[in-house]
Structures are given as structure tokens and as C-alpha cells.
Specification:
The chain has 271 residues and is an all-alpha fold. It is built from twelve helices and no strands.
């Protein structure tokens, strides 16, 4: 047994090992800031430095409002055929988000409370599309709220208690909140989206999502972004969460095949 590779010992097929490695690389290094800096050629910190006073409160309020609307959207009908398994359509959602970014870009930070809920719901729709393409059932409240929770997986911040280190830790921290909110929503109550369990879930996601939104705003604030425009930054924003969603629901698909315990062991053995 000593001459067997760690990959053979996991019991995963070579194809699935490659998928898991790619997913791990994305989920353990999801930084939107690095992607934006690569495109703009300017660190996000420069953009943060030139944002107006009070922008943090504006962002916090906008993030909370956007996720509340997304929660309502998630508990409604995100897709007409939630069980249909077919390839996702990432570019359709990218174009729609780029259009919203272009419209909001002309008004700067003032447009955030209006533009962010729209782009967030568009991203959520794309996340659901990706989830469905990976065989994830989004017909149930828990399945849809699992899509919403992807917004909490796209930040690598360690600056707050909710920003747990690592993908599995973040999932564990969100797991009960998703389950509680889904249980409440399953009752069919008209106020499910504003129930305490849902509020707790939204707050947990907002703590992490707000980090990436701040980076997105900073990217738009960098002078060179005037040429690139809000549309291009929104394309990056959408692409960022599409990559995170693809990785996350790849992991979920492999979990259904191998079980969570075995998959986590395989994850930890990967180089």
C-alpha cells in the first residue's frame, strides 16, 4: 500500500480527481480583487482609497437590500424548468449583467442601491442555471437557497467572524442557516423571505458578499475603469460568481457520487 498514490487511495476516478482539483483551486482562491487588478493593471486598494466618505455604509445597506431581494427571488420561481439538465448559458447572463453595469455606471455610487439588486438577481439566476446543469435540484427551497449561499463562497476575506477560513468551513458555517431558512420556507408562509431564519441567512451571506461588492466598486472607481466602463467590471463580477458556482456545484455533484467524508479526504490529499 505504501507505493500507492494518495489519489488511488481516495477511490475517485482520475477524471473526478481532476475536476475536484480544479474546483479546489477556484474555491480556495476566489479573489475577485486579484482578477480585477489583473485586468485593470491597478491594485484594488487604489480604488478603495478614492471612494467617497460614507461609502462603506452605502455598500452595507445596498448589499443587505440586494440579498433580501435575491432571497425573495430564490423562494419564487428562478427557472421555469428547475429539473431540466442541460448545459448552462453563462454568456446570456453575462450580457444582461453588463447591460445593467453600463446603465448604472453613469451614476456612480449613487446608483448602487438600484443596480446591485438587479445584478445580484441576474447572477443568482446564472448560479441556478449552473447548479441545474450539474444535476442539482433547484425545485426545493433548500436547493434554491444553496444557490443563494454561493454569494458567501466568493470572498477570501478573513476580516470577520463569518469569513471562515476555507471552503468546507464556510459551508459548515452556512449549512444550518440554509437548512433553517429552507425549513421555514417549506411551510409556505407568505412571510418566509422575511422570517428570522431567512434574516439570519441573509446576514451571514452579506458579511462575505459585501467584501466582493466593495472590491467591485473599487474596481469601477479606478480611473482606467472609465475606459473599461461599468459594463466590463460587471462582466468580471458575473464571471467571478459563475466560476465559484461551477466549482461549488461540481463538488456537490461529486459528493452525491462519493459521499462528503470521502470527498473531503480526497480534497485534503490533493497537491
Amino acid at each position: 500500500m505504501n507505493d500507492a498514490s494518495p489519489e488511488i487511495l481516495t477511490g475517485l476516478s482520475p477524471e473526478h480527481i481532476a475536476e475536484l482539483r480544479a474546483a479546489r483551486d477556484t474555491l480556495e482562491n476566489p479573489s475577485f480583487a486579484m482578477q480585477a487588478a489583473s485586468l485593470l493593471g491597478t491594485p484594488i486598494e487604489k480604488g478603495l482609497a478614492i471612494l467617497p466618505d460614507g461609502w462603506r455604509r452605502t455598500v452595507k445597506n445596498a448589499v443587505q437590500g440586494a440579498l433580501e431581494k435575491a432571497a425573495h427571488f430564490a423562494l419564487g420561481s428562478m427557472e421555469a424548468n428547475p429539473r431540466r439538465a442541460e448545459p448552462a448559458s453563462p454568456w446570456l447572463h453575462k450580457l444582461m449583467t453588463a447591460a445593467s453595469g453600463a446603465a448604472g455606471g453613469a451614476f456612480g455610487l449613487a446608483a448602487l442601491p438600484l443596480e446591485l439588486p438587479l445584478s445580484t438577481c441576474l447572477i443568482l439566476r446564472s448560479i441556478a442555471d449552473i447548479a441545474r446543469s450539474q444535476g442539482h435540484d433547484i425545485s426545493s427551497p433548500e436547493g434554491r437557497l444553496d444557490c443563494l449561499a454561493v454569494f458567501a463562497l466568493g470572498s477570501d476575506s478573513k476580516s470577520d467572524d463569518a469569513a471562515d477560513s476555507g471552503y468546507w468551513a464556510a459551508r459548515a458555517a452556512l449549512g444550518k442557516a440554509v437548512s433553517d431558512a429552507a425549513s421555514w420556507a417549506a411551510t409556505g408562509s407568505a412571510g418566509a423571505a422575511s422570517a428570522p431564519a431567512m434574516v439570519r441567512l441573509v446576514e451571514s451571506i452579506a458579511a462575505r458578499f459585501g467584501v466582493t461588492v466593495s472590491e467591485q466598486i473599487a474596481a469601477k472607481a479606478v480611473p482606467v475603469a472609465g475606459a473599461v466602463a461599468g459594463a466590463a467590471v460587471n462582466l468580471m463580477f458575473m464571471g467571478h460568481y459563475q466560476r465559484v458556482a461551477t466549482a461549488h456545484f461540481t463538488v456537490r455533484r461529486l459528493e452525491r457520487l462519493y459521499g462528503s467524508d470521502l470527498l473531503q479526504k480526497a480534497w485534503n490529499r490533493l497537491d
